[in-house]
Amino acid sequence: MSGVTTHVLDLAAGRPAAGVAVRLERQAGDTWQSVGQGTTDADGRLRDLVPAGADLETGRYRLTFATGPYFAASGIASFHPEVAVAFEVAAPREHHHVPLLVSPFGYTTYRGS
């Protein structure tokens, strides 16, 4: 399992959000460097954002979720074209699970387990 995972739930539809493109980046000075990317599966999960065998480093990371295209694919207008969630990794050997609960006009997130 990756050091960073996510799970996207569509609150408006009451089901997992399958097919959401997600990008993971690490801040390096004033820029963001790509760490990994993928698309949520049928259960709304993405388990392999960090390449196999790669270790996390301490620092600031950002997950960017392509929520606009997800809703547009179902013909639903949405307010946020993407959701960017920045978070700190202080213990690189710990698992970092960052769920996203999304609707067409809002979202929330937290550190999961």
Structure description:
There is one protein chain. With 113 residues, the protein is mostly beta strands. It has one domain: Immunoglobulin-like, CATH 2.60.40.180.
Number of strands: 10
CATH level 4 superfamily:
Transthyretin/hydroxyisourate hydrolase domain
How do the SSEs run, as a string of H and E? EEEEEEHEEEE
Overall spatial form: globular
Helix content: under 10%
Largest sheet: 6 strands, mixed
> What radius of gyration results from the CA coordinates?
14 Å
Q: What is the fold-level CATH name, i.e. the topology?
A: Immunoglobulin-like
Note the beta-strand portion: over 45%
What structural class do you assign from the helix and strand content?
mainly beta
Number of domains: 1
Provide the CATH top-level class. Answer: Mainly Beta
Question: What are the main properties of this structure?
Answer:
113 residues; 5% helix; mainly beta; globular
Describe this structure in a few short sentences.
The chain is mostly beta strands and 113 residues long. It contains 1 helix and 10 strands.
Produce the secondary structure layout.
Elements: E1 4-10, E2 15-16, E3 21-28, E4 31-39, E5 45-46, E6 59-65, H1 67-72, E7 83-89, E8 96-97, E9 100-103, E10 106-109
Parallel strand pairs: 1-8, 1-9
Antiparallel strand pairs: 1-2, 1-5, 3-4, 3-6, 6-7, 9-10
